[in-house]
Amino acid sequence: MSASIQGTSARRPSPSSSRSTSRKRGGYVPSAEQLMAREFVAVDFETANRQGGVSACQIALVKVYDGRIVDRFVSYLLPPHGFQRFEFTYLHGISFADVQRAPSWDGIGGVVGDFIGALPVYAHNAAFDARVWRELDAYYQVNTYPRSFHCSYRLAARVMPGLENHKLPTVARACVPEYRLNHHRADSDAEACALIVASLQRPEIAAQLL
């Protein structure tokens, strides 16, 4: 399954905890067993403005199986009336003109849910993307939020404490130096997150999470 519209990543707040399976372990960090799952999905949302997750204007999903990317889904999203002010265009390049014919979340949530199924989901700074997802579901009164949500930022901070920081470009350079990140584009950011997690799916890394 795939879609063709490309996008980027609006600025996130610093990582924080949230309701999810992994919160019980403290801040979206997966268990050793969860990290070693053969299949998972990485996500990146873009938002139009500071009004919150309901202003989401793009989603990118990347599916990994046995360490390899096997599927992608990328789509613009049309925010509802009252959430259509695009103050982050300078960052991600998305304007209202790009999304005015795009589906809204209630029109695409089912497709997103089918793409993910019961798979675990990762994001780099999952607190941001999880908040966007929950706020979209609440606004449209749907239930697409994944059962298990983890954070590649917090995972990297746990198992790679020697890095200068754990921002996406830094972790991507350390884990997948051959990958050419186009930062602040949702498709590239989600792919980088997926590749980071895949690169960390090693027994010696999982042992640090026991």
Written description of the protein model:
There is one protein chain. With 210 residues, this protein is of the alpha/beta class. It has one domain (32-209): Nucleotidyltransferase, domain 5, CATH 3.30.420.10. It contains 9 helices and 5 strands; from the N terminus they run αβββαααβαβαααα. It has a 5-stranded mixed sheet with strand order 3-2-1-4-5, with helices on both faces. Helix 5 links the parallel strand 4 and strand 5 (149-151). Helix 7 crosses helix 8. Mean pLDDT is 89; it is low at 1-25. InterPro entries: Ribonucl_H, RNaseH-like_sf, RNaseH_sf. It holds the Pfam family RNase_T. Residues 8-20 have a biased composition (Low complexity).
CATH architecture: 2-Layer Sandwich
Provide the low-confidence segments as ranges: 1-25
Looking at CATH, the homologous superfamily is Ribonuclease H-like superfamily/Ribonuclease H
Mean pLDDT: 89
Oligomer: single chain
Query: Would you give the CATH topology?
Result: Nucleotidyltransferase, domain 5
Strand content: 15-25%
Helicity level, as a percent range?
A: 25-40%
CA radius of gyration: 16 Å
Q: What characterizes the major β-sheet?
A: 5 strands, mixed
- Count structural domains: 1
Sum up the overall morphology in one term: globular
Order of helices and strands: HEEEHHHEHEHHHH
Number of strands: 5
InterPro entries: Ribonucl_H (IPR013520), RNaseH-like_sf (IPR012337), RNaseH_sf (IPR036397)
Organism: Schaalia canis
Domain Exonuclease: 39-206
Region (Disordered): 1-28
